[in-house]
Each structure stands twice: as C-alpha cells, then as structure tokens.
Design brief:
single chain; about 575 residues; alpha/beta; 6-stranded parallel β-sheet; 22 helices; 19 strands; about 40% helix
Length: about 575
Amino acid sequence: MAFSIGGHLVAEELHRAGVRDLFTLCGGHIAPIYDGCLRYGIRLIDTRHEQAAAHAGDGYARLTRGPGVALVTAGPGVTDAVTGVANAYQAQSPLVLLGGAAEVRSVGRGALQEMEQLPVLRSITKWSATCTDPRRLREMVQTALRVSMAGTPGPVFLELPFDILMAQVDHNELVVPPPLPSWPRTQADPESLAAAVALLAQAEHPVIFAGSQVYWEGAHTALGQLCATTHIPVVMNGMGRGTLPADHPQALNHARKRALRGTDLVVLIGTPLDFRIGFGAGINPKAKIIQIDRDPTQFNKNRAVDVALSGSADRVLAQLADALAGHSGATLRGRMAPWLAELHAEEERGQSQINAHIVARGRPINHYQLSSALAQALGAPGLGGGRGAMADDAVLIGDGGDVVGLGSKVLPLRRPGQWLDPGPLGCLGVGAPFAIAAKALDRDNRQRVVVLSGDGSFGLNGFDFETCIRFGMKVTVVVGNDAAWGQIRGPQVMLFGTERSPATKLAPVRYDRVVEAFGGVGFHVESPDELLPTLRQALDHPQVACVNVALDPEFVVASGAAKLTV
C-alpha cells in the first residue's frame, strides 16, 4: 500500500502534464507543494512579489502557447496576484494560478490569512474552484490545466487548503483520469467561407488585420500563404506583431491608419474591435468586414460584420488560401499593385518623419533615437539600410507608455513571439516577469532578452531584476527615463496646462544604479552618440545590465505624438 501527501500529488500531476517551471513566492500554506516540486524535478522560480509570479506565468504561457503556472500563498498572496490574473484574462492567456488557503476545518474561525478567495477571482478567470477532497487533487489540477486551454484560452484559479495538501492519500483511492488530447482545431463552415471568398473577389482595397489569435494558433504560416495568394496588405497588433516579418512587402506599420480608412474590405483575424481600433470606428464605415475568431461572442461586437468565420485561425486562413488559389486569387493579386503602391508611399512618408527625429543630434535624447539605436544593436539595419528586421535571437518586452508606444513604430520584428507587451488591459510592470519567463525557457542561453521600460513601469516590479540575477538569467533592461508618467502627463498638459497636471512627475532616478545594487551592471546615457555603443556593450555583458537613458520630457507633446487614451 502506497501513500502520498496532497502537495506531492499536485506536483506529480503538474509534472505529468509537462510543467517544468513554476513561478512563486513562498508561504507556509503552499510548503507541501514545494516539497513535491523537489521530488518531481519542477524548478521553483521565486519572485519578489506575487504580481510578478502571475505575470511570469502569463509570459511563460504566451511564449509556449500552453499553460503557465504560478503558485502563491493564501490571503495577501492571492490578492497580490490578482493584477497578473486580470492581465492574462484580457490577453486570453492560459495562466494557471494555484493558491494556498486556510484549512478546511478552520473556515469561518479566523485562521491566518483566511478570506473568501474564489469570489475575488471569479470575474477574471474562466474557472475557479476549491479542492476539498485530497483524493481528487490530481483530477482537479488536470481540470485546471485543461480548462485554461479549452476553446478560448484564459486564466483559471485552483484553491488548495493547507490540510488538503498535508493529507495522506492511499494511492488506491486516487482519482487520476488519463491524460486528455489537446483541444481540437476547427474549420469555418463552407457556406460562410464561400461568402467570404465572394467578398474578397470583389474587393479593390482590402486589408488583413492580424491579431493575437494568429500567434496563439500558430497561424503565421497560413497567413503567409494567404498573403502570397492575394497580395493583400497586412497590419498587425497585439501578439500578432511579427507574424509577418517587418521587411515583408505586404507588412504595414506607419500606413495603418491610411489603410483602415481607405479600405473597402477588412479581414479581421482574432482581434476585438476595441479601443485600439476606435471600437470599429477607425475602419472606413463603408467597408465590408470579414471576421475570423475562435470565440463567437466577439462577432458583431461594437460593429456589425458582413461574414463571420468561426474557427481556428490557422485552419480558416488555410481554407481561404486554398479557395483563392485559382482564378479569384490571381485576379485579386492583379488589382493590388496600385493599392500597395499607395500604402508604401504612406509608409515612406511616415518613416521619413520619424527619421528626421532620429538624425537630430542635440540633447536630450528623444524616444525614436532610443528605439532606433536599440533596433540596430539587435541586428536591424540603420538609416539608409533599407527595410530589415532584428536578429532572430532577440526577444523584446515592452513595459511602459510612450517609450513603448513610439518604440513599436521603430523596432522591426522578424518572427512571431519576438515582441511581448501587456496586452489590452494596459498593465504596467510586466517587464521583469516576462523576461524571467523568457529566460526560464532559454536554458541554452541563446536568446538576447531585452526589456524596453519606462521609468514609471520600472517601479512596479523592478525588484525582480534581482530575481534574474539570482537565477543567472542574463537580461538587458533599457529604461527610457523622462522623470514622469509621460503617457499620462502629455495629454494632461495639453488639456489643462503644466500647472494643472498633478501626480505625473517623477524624480530623475538612476535606475542603472538600482540594478548595480542588486549585483548587475549599469550604464547611463545622455547623448545620442553614446546610445548605440552603450547598448551594444550592455547586450554583450555577461551580467544583467541596465541602460538608463535620459529622455526629453517634452518630446512627445512637442512632436505631436501625445494622445489621450481612455
């Protein structure tokens, strides 16, 4: 007769499911799971804040396209993780949060860190439950992992009381269901597909809008095939960035607004018509819309669509490419040259405006100069080098406001998953946690992981660069330091004036010295001429490195780039 304690059963099931890294912050309620992780060889990566543990699990999920697991203790451990769970929920990321809890036998008696945790998590998770029977622990862990990936992925929460984790369980009484197959991919129905093909065959100025589901469902190859078949221009957002390389002839960056306003047909793939597209108003009101989404509840949200294709992005895009492979596709390709030429001219105009800021050599440094130098340090061509992209080994994490928003206009991506940002919740503080996730997966140390951070966002989880140092994770953080919450301050100044813009100024902190105090190496830059050599030096340094870049606090307003987003 064999027995195991509950905490070991949790670790055993995680290990059986392929979990090898678990992000956590210690607490007495979850100690039995820690012991199980040691038994089954699961690496515990302990962060400095539970929010960071949750963000790291989210980042791990995004990079693997599978569940990422965070483990936190009861009460404040769970509430600290709430922001990370909410961010994963909005991003449709399969984060599995395991939370400790007071003993079942003590519920209602005022135990240490006792609180009702499920109601707190229920509105920002796909599934939340408590395990009250230790014999069902493995079953419920499998359910949590399964539900996180089922249909539209998203976070789940499993509450694990301490006495359940300490209970001795006879193996003969365990509930251990067999491993389930991966969630099936689905195709669009033929009638809707035919309607979409008919609309495409008539379009004069079509645009493909590739969103996060293109990345999540590995649909970049199918997207490339559809592009080759039709020559339709493509704009990308969210995790969809990089699903076409920046130097692809149909990939747009600066001409996005012109494309969406001038289009007569948009193929919207796995992205909501939310604030990022003016709730649909950013698209020509006369344009037809074909919407592809795995979640049918997204159809007709904020704007009616003409054809809804429900299914997995990779399967549906392949269907479209196959259906257009003959005469219809050839006819469509023949009509695209003038439309592409118009948009490429707009791309060049937008790039030339940015280039004028990049070549300015006066102080202080502006946001475009910073991102341009970073792109070159990561292998992209400089000005005059033509269209190109960063090296394949770079992983770039955006954690900030203006420094990230303007940086995304300059940093050319080569592949899917090369760019991570918070997602539609707009949550700051993901930089160090996402970097931890990226380096946890980079066991051969082949990738250059870079966090492009605002000085405000650094303050949220910047202590977790110490976690990077402690675990030997070589990360470079580049801080665009304008001593302000710049993305908020700029619009406030424009609306109300400099003297009526409170709570938006920060001190000009030397964040390079903060990282040096952790045991890393720091660099400080004030001149544009120092940017590229310093960034290269930091990237080549074997330790965790921070480059603190003094940015022009007036640039965003003066350049006209400031805008209020609510």
